[in-house]
Amino acid sequence: MALAAILSAFRQLVLDGIELPPTQDERVALYSKKFQGLSPEEIEDLSKMDPARLKVYTSSVFMAEGGILSTAFPLTLAILRRSWPGSMGPFSPAEVAQRVHQVSPWRGIHSQSLGLSLRDFIEQQLAPLCKSEPELLEVVGFEQAALEIRKALNESVAPQSTEIFNQISNMKVQELLNCVAYVPTLLRCCLLHYDIEALRQHFLKTGELSAIALRRHALIGARPFDYGVFWSEVPESVASLMMAHRGESSVSLTLSELAEGYLQGASHQSEEEAFNSFLLFVQELVKIGALTIMLPSNESSTMPDRISV
Amino acid sequence: MKKNFNLPILGAGAGLRHEHFDQILKTTPDFKWFEVISDDFMDFGGYSRDRLMQISERYQLISHGVCLAIGSTDPLDREYLRRLKKFCIDIGSPWTSDHLCFTKVDHTNMLDLMPLPFNKETVEHVVERVKIVQQELELPFLLENVTRYVTVSDREMSEGEFISEIVTRADCGLLLDITNVYLNSQFHGYDAQHFISSLPLERVGQIHLAGWVPTDDGSIIDSHDGPVQPEVWELFKKTIELTGPTSVLVEWDNLLPSVDRLLAETVMADQVIMQHAGFGEGR
Question: Which of A67, A308, B46, B128 is deepest in the core (most CB within 10 A)?
């Protein structure tokens, strides 16, 4: 199909960084070599296109993609800016986008899939940089997870407000532990070796990158009923448990199972202290939208509608 | 066919942007309707989506897409169409539209509205795809003419013939972007009014107006970052005399103005409709 070949040639002229000769004759010669599936008439048509006008598309595409990357991956881009290899020319988000395209073209229509391309680019093209900025791959993974949480579809089981705390604090221990909890599909887990949240907080406040501390820990992120993306540090055993129970199609998770995971390896002086600690932990998970507790006595809260605010 | 592709006439509305959500919900300004970029919302939840649904309870929303890629030779994404249909139902959009262009090929997202070659093969290809789109969506569907900085091919037909043949044979509506016509007339040296007169104007279900700010070197691109320019207002007046009253949308997507400034642009558009197309309803 000639149309497919023409559109493909147009894509290459706009996105692939081909140096376009100034005269039409030179372009005919170049395109004849490069696009061998096209007829002489099609080659002539394409060669009539002014390279300067084609560059309007090139700039528009990579400026826009660079803008998306800057918005969704601010920390990653700040690290890239700090350590951008001189061999890749001056740093700019548009330049990053163009480089990303050369390694891993954007396959989807959402920023999440552009993020995956960014990660591919970093892994494949910036190995030396990853040695001097060893946190970089964790940062891009963390920002990708945050993006996926922020953009995720609403789920049929809504996050709860803190009003639920009054209800659960009046429950007997066994009653509470028997409760089933919903873990949203949008929940993400990051197993980290660096304190990326501290780096992010500092960057948000100052616009500067701070030194990063080594710290192995697990974060889970979710979206509470009043929006935003929030993270909480959890034991790795809990992170695995919750990831395994995400979404409606999974086997139900009871608070008793969660307590077992939470208390694994922890030392508490008494059962009461352990329970109180667990209760605070559950409240934190509810607060960040990582857990919705199904209260057996209240039908409306067993499968609540989305809370409108 | 009656005028306006048999679509309701909503008067002048504006493009809805995230940055204006809170003020619109708080002050409920006197907009007649809003156009929503379907691709910004249909696959997402959270704050923006919930705010959008609240706005849909107070205003008529019309869906407009940028990612359908009707001219692409990649397979038409039926799953995308199913999600788009659901989105239109969710927001109560009586029709939807997208651009006569391609935005992906070789499974690569090109992000911008890329021009198609004006030839018979492309016409056949797009007509078949529009028919599928209309079957899947079960909603009136409009194609928008795009700004193009280059001509990929016009040896078989002109742009006007290309657009006319596609919308007529596919039996879809036309979203006539007056700014795009004006800019193309400047880029490619043709008479904008003559171009518009050559189109099947009974299929124009909606009109777009947008502005631009010239770049530092004085050149212009379709940047949607300023008020509608006088040349475009003039062309709009002449067009609305031909089409009669039509739903008109002011697009202002970058360097966003205040809600009041945006509203003022739609008031101006409404005044043009009333003065030049006998639109009887005042605000």
Answer: B46
Q: What is the DSSP letter of B216?
A: T
| C-alpha separations of B11 from B14, B32, B269, B282 in Å | 10, 7, 8, 10
**Using CA atoms, how far apart are residues A109 and A111, in angstroms rounded to an integer?**
7
What count of other Cβ atoms lies within 10 Å of the Cβ of residue A169? 10
CB contact under 8 A, A57 and B107: no
| Alpha helices in chain B, H assignment, sequence order | 21-27, 46-56, 78-91, 120-137, 159-170, 178-188, 192-197, 230-243, 259-277
Q: Can you give B258-278 as a three-state secondary structure string?
A: CHHHHHHHHHHHHHHHHHHHC
With beta carbons less than 8 A apart as the criterion, state whether B45 and B15 touch.
Answer: no
Residue pLDDT, tens place only, B213-260 = 877 777 788 888 889 999 999 999 999 999 999 999 999 988 889 999
Within the 134-153 window of chain A, which residues sit less than 8 Å (CB to CB) from chain B?
150-153
The domains located in chain B, with CATH, are 3-277 (3.20.20.150)
A residues 195..224 contacting B (CB < 8 A)? 223
A64 vs B: CB within 8 A: yes
Nearest-CA distance B279 → chain A (Å): 38
ipTM of the complex: 0.94
Q: Which residue of A has its CA nearest to B45?
A: A153
Average pLDDT over residues B72-101: 98
Record: contact B50-A15, CB cut-off 8 A: no
> Across the interface, do B153 and A45 touch by the CB < 8 Å criterion?
yes
Q: What is the pLDDT of residues B122-163, one digit of tens each?
A: 999 999 999 999 999 999 999 999 999 999 999 999 999 999
Neighbour count for residue A272 (Cβ, 10 Å): 10
